[in-house]
Automatic annotation (TrEMBL):
Keyword Nucleotidyltransferase: no
Top-rank taxon: Eukaryota
Protein's name in the database: Uncharacterized protein
Gene3D superfamilies xref list: 2.60.40.2310, 3.50.30.30, Peptidase S8 propeptide/proteinase inhibitor I9, Peptidase S8/S53 domain
Length: 834
């Protein structure tokens, strides 16, 4: 690599710098109007807060040359200026505030000139008016938790009704069938100041296996821990050198458990950086662990055995963030052993929630198919992590990566080098640009070229076929001393989807080809080559920004691209069933929660106690934890009543008050969501506690539903459920669900629903209908009064007015005189006018 032209570095003397700063402080006397800070009059008893103070004058970065080739050695003058700024910050505080009224936390003396101070509002007001202060703002202290999602869903208000987070979920057992648990994690510790009583729930009868590695796995918070491996051992086989126990080797089960019921207020620290504190939805609920998935994989046999054991133990809630990934051969999914085991778990009084699957945005991809379970779709929250890279011509590109900045040493811009242009000289003829391009092999790159630079690596064929990993890119960067790396989409292969990963060195992924093209155009424009296209000088400069600080946007939730969609189908022939799937939308994108440091399948997370993950696996435990809260407050409610309350009180609108949108194949491309994307809408825990009406259903109702389904053989129903079909329902759409789905509506059809008043006083309800296109809907009665714990039958007439080529969507709304609002989404396929 040829060095860039030298630049004149005019470094001011130490005395000049001190005179400059002193003059600024002496002359700048105008107080500032600070809109971000409300400053009360001085007074006793004020709560302290952190304030960020920007001071007039530049930091050392402003005195560095714009295009220096190397930034590892800072000049003596710059070091002196940084030290002088620290002294001047101290002098400013001492001259403005009374001793003992503040604590300086940091001096910012590299990229800008300022400091952070912990003090009272009245003292902050004095500081704001001090000479030399440009801006003072209160630290907003954004709480980045699962773990942010309790706040997003309004759970602190729900917890307060039962005594706060220290009792939220008390007395409820959540069973988790997954990859096990990390029993040593603080998210599952027994708080000595608020211990779990041994006699808390005598009807639960779990068992605790021992582990030679972890010892006793149960501690009062974890009340049962078992593993099921016979199927996996027979199929894979399992690693014989590993101890088989409920200990989580993967991390997935630990993550799910902590989202549902992890302890409140656990610090989230990854790579030495604190992202906030974590809390489960029901932080006081107990956890029963049923490990059925291993690093090598899992079998339905082990899962069903775990379901069976959980039902025997007496769990109240069961989470399945796992499950069969495709329909069974030869029989409808509804009659598979897996689904029937869940039917009987429901019969045992267990509320079952399933991850809906991660095969979106294609339709009919949901793996939660039965009406006796709740299938969770995944949505975004209003918090997101986004990294940036700035080119020295001022262009800023957005990307992904939980990364620290590349300017830690005070120098913002580093030389920019493409891996394909830095092939190792000694093996140049043996290494192809494609081999070097993905930054998987340190020996493929020339150390002298890439050391101290930001290297452009290509997300190419190896990443798509699984032979290349981000972990290997990180390893190459560490071995060769990159200042940072940029993992870019291959313009030939197109965009890729990236989730934030923790990078131990500065790094950013740019998944959009359009952004990559801007970067590559800049690179080629600033890179000098000889006639043979060999680089003679790298003139480009870039700076990777801080990617670990979240930003917030009220336009959430949005249905995540990966979240599986309806309509519900029951076999490989794609026969649709009259059941709405998914059922409900919950946070499932970029969720912080506990992790297992073993991390057998994710080397990049190895050694970490927390992970930021996305998937419907993360959405399901949100619903499970909320169901546990409802069960705590309403212990007599059965699973269908809890499911109904969650569904009919859900919201179809985002934080800006507009209908929820969905991501398409391109996450940036949004379209209006339908019930097949979001189910009933975003879960609303506070409203679910007081739904007004519910739509109850029981085991016999599910048998009648099976017997009436045209794609289900009645004799097979008997053989799988041991229940003979009597007189079937007129239609599977008559199952008393809190939604109406008809996969083939011809002419006129009557549908029945029965509501139950869960309140303590009579209430009068008036109905209204948002009509689906091509269908006219009438309700009888449209006005009714219902007594406490009473029921009311409703006849719903649906008439085709126009045949369509697909589903149309509407909604029935029942508005109560006591302000209850009950919503039933409708998904109707009008196929013929008769």
């Amino acid at each position: 690599m040829t060095n860039s032209p030298e630049h004149s570095f005019l470094s001011p003397s130490l005395s000049q710098l001190r005179r400059y700063c002193t003059k600024v402080f002496a002359l700048l006397l105008l107080p500032l109007l600070l809109q971000a800070v409300s400053i009360p009059a001085p007074g006793a008893g004020e709560d302290r807060a952190i304030y960020l103070v920007h001071v007039e004058g530049d930091g050392p970065v402003a005195f560095e040359p714009e295009h220096a080739e190397k930034f590892s050695n800072r000049s003596g003058s710059s070091v002196s200026l940084a030290k002088n700024l620290v002294d001047l910050h101290d002098e400013l505080l001492q001259s403005s505030l009374a001793e003992g009224t503040y604590q300086k936390l940091y001096s910012f003396n590299h990229i800008f000139n300022g400091f952070a101070v912990h003090t009272t509002p009245s003292q902050a007001g004095r500081l704001a008016a001090a000479p030399g202060v440009k801006l003072l703002e209160r630290d907003r202290q954004a709480k980045l938790m699962t773990t942010y999602t309790p706040a997003f869903l309004g759970l602190p208000g729900v917890w307060a009704e039962g005594g706060g987070e220290k009792t939220a979920g008390e007395g409820v057992v959540i069973g988790i069938i997954d990859t096990g648990i990390n029993p040593a994690h603080p998210s599952f510790a027994n708080d000595p100041e608020n211990p779990f009583r041994p006699d808390w729930r005598p009807q639960f009868d779990g068992a605790c296996e021992m582990s030679s590695l972890a010892g006793a796995l149960c501690n009062g918070k974890i009340v049962s821990a078992r593993h099921f491996s016979a199927g996996a051992a027979a199929v894979f086989p399992l690693n014989a050198s590993r101890e088989l126990s409920p200990v989580d080797e993967v991390g997935h089960g630990t993550h799910v458990a902590s989202v549902a019921a992890g302890n409140w207020g656990v610090p989230v620290v990854v790579g030495g950086f604190k992202y906030g504190t974590a809390s489960g939805m029901a932080p006081r609920a107990r956890i029963a662990v049923y490990k059925a998935i291993y690093p090598e994989g899992g079998t339905t046999a082990d899962v069903i055995s775990a379901i069976d054991q959980a039902a025997q133990d007496g769990v109240h809630i069961l989470i399945l963030s796992i499950g069969p990934d495709e329909p069974p051969e030869g029989i409808p999914s509804l009659l598979s052993a897996f689904e029937i085991s869940l039917l009987f778990a429901r019969r045992a009084g267990i509320f079952v929630v399933q991850a809906g699957g991660n095969k979106g945005p294609s339709e009919s991809t949901t793996i939660s198919v039965s009406p006796w379970t709740v299938g969770a779709a995944a949505g975004t929250t209003d918090r997101k992590f986004q990294a940036t890279i700035k080119l020295d011509d001022g262009i800023i590109l957005q990307g992904v990566g939980l990364t620290g900045p590349s300017y830690k040493d005070g120098f913002p811009f580093k030389p920019l080098v493409a891996a394909k242009d830095a092939i190792a000289k000694q093996r140049g003829s043996q290494i192809s640009p494609a081999y070097a391009d993905e930054c998987q092999h340190p020996e493929a790159l020339e150390p002298a070229v890439v050391q101290g630079t930001i290297v452009i690596c290509n997300f190419s064929v190896g990443f798509f076929n699984g032979s290349s990993t981000v972990t290997s890119t990180l390893n190459t960067a560490k071995v060769l001393g990159f200042a940072g790396f940029i993992l870019v989409a291959n313009p030939i292969l197109g965009d890729f989807v990236a989730e934030p990963l923790p990078f131990t060195i500065p790094g950013i992924m740019i998944p959009k080809v359009s952004d990559v093209q801007i970067l590559l155009d800049y690179y080629e424009k600033t890179t000098y080559r000889d006639p043979e296209r060999t680089v003679t000088r790298y003139g480009g400069r870039a700076s990777i920004g801080e990617g670990r600080i979240a930003s917030f946007d009220e336009g959430a939730p949005v249905v995540a691209r990966f979240s599986s969609r309806g309509p519900d189908v029951v076999d490989r022939q794609m026969n649709a069933v009259d059941v709405l799937k998914p059922d409900i939308l919950a946070p499932g994108s970029q969720i912080w929660a506990a992790w297992s440091p073993i991390s057998a399948l994710e080397p990049i997370l190895r050694g970490e106690d927390f992970a930021l993950l996305s998937g419907t696996s993360m959405a399901a435990p949100h619903i499970a934890g909320i169901a546990a809260l409802i069960k705590q407050f309403k212990p007599t409610w059965d699973p269908s009543e809890i499911a109904s309350a969650i569904s009919t009180t859900a919201s179809g609108y985002d934080g800006n008050g507009i209908p929820i949108m969905s991501q398409g194949s391109d996450p940036q491309s949004l379209y209006p969501s339908t019930p097949f994307d979001r189910g009933a809408g975003l879960v609303n825990p506070s409203r679910a506690l007081n739904p007004g009406l519910v739509f109850p259903s029981g085991f016999k109702d599910y048998i009648s539903f099976l017997c009436s389904s045209p794609s289900v053989d009645r004799e097979m129903v008997k053989s799988t459920t041991n229940r003979a079909c009597g007189s079937p329902e007129s239609s599977p759409a008559d199952l008393n669900l809190p939604s109406i789905t008809i996969a083939s509506l011809r002419g006129l059809q009557m549908v029945r629903r029965r509501v139950k008043n869960m309140g303590d006083v009579p209430e009068t309800y008036l109905s209204s209908v948002r009509q689906p296109r091509g269908v006219r809907v009438y309700l009888k009665p449209s006005l009714f009064t219902i007594q406490p714990q009473g029921t009311q039958d409703i006849q719903i007439e649906l008439k085709v007015t126009e045949a369509l080529e697909g589903f149309s969507f509407g909604e029935i709304v029942l508005v109560g005189s006591l302000d209850h609002i009950v919503r039933l989404p409708m998904s109707i396929f009008p196929v013929a006018v008769i």
